[in-house]
Design a protein that fits this description.
Blueprint (H helix, E strand, L loop, with lengths): L2 H6 L16 H26 L3 H18 L8 E3 L4 H7 L3 E2 L5 E3 L2 H28 L1 H5 L4 H25 L1 H17 L3 H4 L1 H15 L6 H5 L21 H10 L3 H19 L4 H23 L4 E3 L1 H10 L4 H14 L3 H7 L4 H25 L7 H19 L3 E5 L2 E5 L1 H15 L22
Length: about 450
């Protein structure tokens, strides 16, 4: 076959694409933009809730993702965006202040830097766990994270996110249904590029409907400048590492949250592995992915951004498009960095109605839970076994139940500490798996190929 005929041969999207360059540069750039849109709505929501800068958040997400890919040898198609798990910590350390109307809308600039310092130090816990894995080996550590633990955790991640999708949809069901409908139609009946760009097309179509129905306010766009430096000095965690009581309190409040996000990380990496058919827990190794996530979080905290975490939204995009090349994720990170210097673009994105975000999230969050189910099924986890059934039940009920109550709050040396539902579920799942008899799971880190979807290699 000639070189020309090779280049013009039709591409089989159904089997997944691991080298996006075969699609051509224009298509790869558009795919990167789609991943940026997938993470954008949730990523900017965290600074809007905490009072941090949206531009700083975009910069930290982009730089953190590139750092993660560098440490993971460019193998894992993961995007690092803002972590929702840390919202409770920010609410305690740096609660939003009331405005003239009594509504909590003003950023607590005096305490934000201390909260960010706590975020920075929480990232160092990742580094510690990464070192333990490097010392004791992945097989010994992975006995604590068999599919009966990771599967329900992945399911819980999607289900915990689900209420936020519905809340956004409730702001405008018309826009949500249009966005969701376009995503489904493009993914099921679309051909070629239409099939692999459902998210971007869903945003565009529903945004046009919002324009037609007069639901877009352009006032903020006209008043925004074209260029601005994204880092805000008053929130940088580096300035708050001073040994003061406020700093110590922030550490005790925020660092324990890393227990939740590390478990979330392992679940997300398992989900990405199940989606792409490659076991990233083995190669490049969960020690490297934890190191990348942790150092990205530390960097974000020092620069005044929220904690980073591997993003389920982008895992959903991987599952929908079947484009698994990490290059596309890195392009999305570069776009995020460039756009962090443009306040006018930030203003444009902020005009996207919440209903559109809800419609897109509706399918993405469900996809995460579905991947968790797939992980359990493909590993042939025996749920008729009472041991496995108990572990799964405790994880699911703890994650959803405690999450609905705002987690579990207790005092350490007079300082209030909050554990999220996901952290509690992960801890209980790991403990039950270690204590209950019958743990026969063995993680094989041999040279098997094509078995990553089951995580049994």
């Amino acid at each position: 076959m000639s070189e020309k005929s090779k280049n013009t041969a039709p591409i089989d999207y159904s089997k997944g694409i691991y080298d996006a360059r075969t699609l051509g540069t224009p298509r790869v750039l558009v795919l990167g933009i789609q991943h940026m849109f997938a993470m954008f709505g949730a990523t900017v929501l965290v600074p809007l809730i905490t009072g941090l800068s949206v531009s700083t958040t975009l910069l930290c997400a982009g730089l953190g993702t590139l750092l993660f890919h560098f440490l993971c040898k460019g193998k894992v198609p993961a995007f690092l965006g803002s972590s929702f798990a840390y919202l409770g910590g920010f609410a305690i350390v740096a609660p939003m202040l009331p405005d003239a109307n009594g509504e909590a809308t003003i950023a607590n600039t005096e305490m934000l830097s201390y909260a960010c310092a706590g975020v920075a130090f929480s990232g160092l816990l990742y580094v510690l766990v990464s070192g333990l894995i490097s010392v004791f080996g992945i097989r010994r550590i992975m006995r604590f994270f068999p599919p009966i633990v990771t599967g329900p955790i992945i399911i819980s991640i999607g289900l915990i996110l689900a209420p936020s999708a519905i809340s956004n949809c409730e702001t405008n069901w018309l826009l949500a249904i249009v966005a969701l409908g376009v995503v489904i139609i493009c993914n099921i009946w679309g051909k070629g590029m239409i099939k692999i760009l459902p998210i971007l097309l869903g945003v565009i179509a529903s945004y046009i409907v919002a324009l037609i129905t007069g639901q877009i306010d352009f006032t903020a766009i006209s008043s925004a400048s074209w260029f601005g430096f994204p880092i805000k000095a008053e929130a940088t965690g580096l300035l708050a590492i001073d040994g003061s009581p406020e700093f110590i309190s922030a550490l005790f409040t925020i660092m324990p949250i890393a227990l939740a996000t590390m478990m979330e990380h392992i679940g997300d990496i398992a989900a990405i592995s199940a989606t792409t058919g490659k076991n990233y827990i083995r190669d490049p190794g969960i020690n490297r992915t934890l190191l990348g996530d942790g150092l990205a979080t530390t960097m974000a905290g020092l620069l005044g951004g929220p904690a980073n975490t591997t993003y389920g939204e982008n895992t959903g995009v991987l599952a929908l498009t079947k484009i698994y090349d990490p290059l596309v994720i890195r392009l999305a990170a570069c776009f995020a960095i460039l756009l962090s210097f443009c306040p006018k673009f930030e203003a444009i994105i902020n005009t996207i109605p919440a209903g559109i975000i809800g419609g897109i999230s509706f399918v993405l969050y469900g996809m995460i839970s579905a991947i968790g189910v797939r992980n359990v099924v493909e590993n042939k986890v025996d749920l008729t076994n009472s041991r496995n059934l108990i572990i799964a039940a405790v994880i699911l009920v703890s994650a959803l139940g405690f999450n609905s109550l705002g987690g579990l709050t207790f005092s350490v040396l007079g300082i209030s500490v909050n554990l999220s539902g996901l952290a509690i579920a992960a801890i209980l799942g790991i403990l039950l798996n270690a204590i209950l008899p019958g743990n026969d799971y063995e993680f094989d880190d041999g040279d098997g190929t094509g078995e990553g979807a089951s995580l049994r290699i």
